Amino acid sequence: MEYKYTPKLFEPKKPFKLSRSKIELFIECPRCFYLDRRLGISRPSLPGFTLNIAVDALLKKEFDTHRTNQTTHPLMKAYGIKAVPFAHKEIDRWRNNFVGINYYDEKSMFDVFGAIDDVWVDEKTGELIIVDYKATSTSAQITLDTEYRQAYKRQMEIYQWLFRQNNFNVSDISYFVYANGKKDKKAFDGKLEFDVELIAYKGDSSWIPEKLIETRKCLEKTKPPSPNKKCEYCQYVEKSNDILN
């Protein structure tokens, strides 16, 4: 089935569809968020990360084989995780970027949605484990402590929150499946090899309801917020205007 999604601009006092990524945009820069969702002025687009997309697709196929057979993936066994990929009729919908899993929050009047990579189920407790795939190529130890990876944590917490709001029993512990491209080979030989590791993260989604209210208040304003001194897009526009005007 093909899912079609046409984004609409925000209208005050009306329900509004809001993606997980747009919540992150608000956290990063309220002004850019306002321009995007209220006025239809989006940031310049970036080229797609096609290698990351390929890794994502292959990992999904790999875990889907175990989902069909209800078997434990070798990576789970290596890390002592007694779980299997969650078999659910909505899994393809949850993974669709324009649909995902959604929940209508009455207080903020946002229909919040996000597309997950995978869900596992703990064989002992029955809790769902939210999983996200990431691809990189680095010789440094992979951690979630860098500044830009704080967004990854929030991403996971929103997914956990969405599943809980849909009455699923969700574990606080989630996992990032990290595929790290090797650069120490003598030759390319037409293939890129990866080390794959699992990084556990304990989420806390208590911040989300309040943040949704803040987001709604931002969009309800008649004027956009002031330029953000930490936002390179805002600073580019400001400096350009100073020179040209």
Word description of this protein:
- Helix 1 packs across helix 2.
- The protein is globular.
- The strands form 2 sheets. A 5-stranded mixed beta sheet has the order 2-5-6-7-8. The protein has a 3-stranded mixed beta sheet with strand order 1-4-3.
- It has 8 helices and 8 strands, in the order E-H-H-H-H-E-H-E-E-E-E-H-E-E-H-H.
- The protein has a single domain, classed as Lambda Exonuclease, Chain A (Alpha-Beta Complex).
- The longest helix is centred in the N-terminal third of the chain and has 20 residues.
- 25% of the residues are buried.
- Helices cover 36% and strands 20% of the residues.
- The N terminus is likely disordered.
- By secondary structure, it is of the alpha/beta class.
Topology:
Layout: E1 16-19, H1 20-28, H2 30-37, H3 50-69, H4 74-78, E2 83-85, H5 91-94, E3 101-105, E4 110-114, E5 118-122, E6 128-136, H6 150-165, E7 173-181, E8 194-202, H7 208-220, H8 232-244
Parallel strand pairs: 1-4, 6-7
Antiparallel strand pairs: 2-5, 3-4, 5-6, 7-8
Helix pairs in contact: 1-2
Summarize this structure briefly:
The protein has helices at residues 20-28, 30-37, 50-69, 74-78, 91-94, 150-165, 208-220, 232-244, and strands at residues 16-19, 83-85, 101-105, 110-114, 118-122, 128-136, 173-181, 194-202.
Instruction: Report the uncertain regions.
Output: 1-5
What is the number of helices?
8
Number of strands: 8
Measured on Cα atoms, how large is the radius of gyration? 20 Å
CATH class division = Alpha Beta
Helix percent reads: 25-40%
The CATH topology corresponds to Lambda Exonuclease, Chain A
Shape: globular
The ordered string of helix (H) and strand (E) elements is EHHHHEHEEEEHEEHH
Strand order of the largest sheet: 2-5-6-7-8
Return the domain count: 1
CATH architecture: Alpha-Beta Complex
The structural class is: alpha/beta
The description of the largest β-sheet is: 5 strands, mixed
Mean pLDDT, to the nearest integer, reads: 93
The share of residues in extended strands comes to 15-25%
Q: Separation of termini?
A: 51 Å
